Amino acid sequence: MAPMLRLYNTLTGAKDLFAPIDAGNVRMYACGPTVYDAAHIGNARPIIVFDLLFRLLRHLYGPAHVTYARNVTDVDDKINARAAERGITIRELTDGTLAQFHRDIRDLGVLMPEDVNRPGEPPRFIEPRATDHIREMCRMIEGLVAAGHAYVAADHVLFDVPSMPDYGRLSKRPLDEMEAGARVEVAPYKRSPLDFVLWKPSKPGEPSWDSPAGIAAPGRPGWHIECSAMSAKHLGETFDIHAGGIDLIFPHHENEVAQSRCCFGTPVMANWWLHNGFLQVEGEKMSKSLGNFITIRDVLRDWPGEVVRLNMLKTHYRQPIDWTLRGLEEASRMLERWYGAVGDAAPAAEAPPSVLEPLLDDLNTAAALAEIHRLDDPARLKAGANLLGLLGQTASARAEASVEAAGIDVARVEGLIAERKAARAAKDWAASDRARDALAAMGVAVKDNKDGTTTWSVAR
Prior knowledge:
Its cofactor is Zn(2+). The chain is α/β, with parallel strands linked by helices. It has 3 domains: about 1-275, 3-Layer(aba) Sandwich (Rossmann fold); about 295-395, no CATH class; about 410-460, no CATH class. Helix content is about 45%, strand content about 15%. The protein has a 5-stranded parallel sheet with strand order 5-4-3-10-11, with helices on both faces. Strands 6-7-8-9 form a 4-stranded antiparallel sheet. Strands 13-12-14 form a 3-stranded mixed sheet. The longest helix has 21 residues, at about 40-60.
């Protein structure tokens, strides 16, 4: 029986029952990072949300029947400028930035290609880089020019938007309104204000490649053509799901649709388009000028990655999220309760239906988390949380990691706890308080249990 998964589709404007083109190979693409600087916490939202969707699809269709491509943009104006500032090549810049990005998102519990792909089997998680796909982009551009959907002007190649009658279908924007809004500082070589760049000449000192079929100056591809070429190569001319942030619907995703459909002659590029909502910080838009610009690494210095992931999943992915200290504290307390409840229990063989069902309803993570709260069986609780990429450690391993990270002297802690216990038995409250204060100074929280035992943990 086919899974009853419903996903909100930006293309149709409705929550549609998901039906893959081929249930033997469900294909999904997500727009990944532009690697010129450290990723901010807003960048983490689509990475976490669509990691959850990837996990859910693997659960429903089987790990061998889902292919996920998440691209890396490793050439653009910001990358060129940053590399020039540092006096290094764009590859040196992007390799270093991408490595940091990988460390950050791994800490957030995000699956990586090495977690999924198996030797001797087709890769199920692909992370294509733009600079490795210049040839594919050139072929698409050549095809668009030959079909009359693109033209050469002033050493650029541009997509001819009026050549596509239903341009704007994804973003639901009428063509005349878009044209009116685009008539600001229009490049004189454009036939229409909406026409966008497929190829652009490089400035002196910038990286460049030979243009498609030699029809323009040496340079580099435009941003939009990158995703069209990479998704077509790895997932096919039409695939199941294309995902990204809501800010990408127009112009990026609209332009991807135009390029792909006009090049391949297909009615759609992807059948489902999913978009996550915006993120703000403490009620305000994140901005360097406001001093609230937070990178993923900044957050991870103060909070475990699981806390960050859970805090992100508490809000439905299509809704705006307000990133607050209070929310992180609440997520931390939730995890502490869950880890305390599951102990070192192994997860159940299957995720509880009560947790799975809300996820089948357009990834309703808030409802799924509420169901996890209601579970009283440790194995089922852990299995439900695991489905969301949470409770990945045993309680013992987590405690040991916290102690190691804090640099705490375990023998000293155990000695102080013994001193405190003896003092309390002798009703020497002053000595008990001294031991308690010494433990607190070390960053240790002590809990006296109902069965007479005393446990401790690293305090935040």
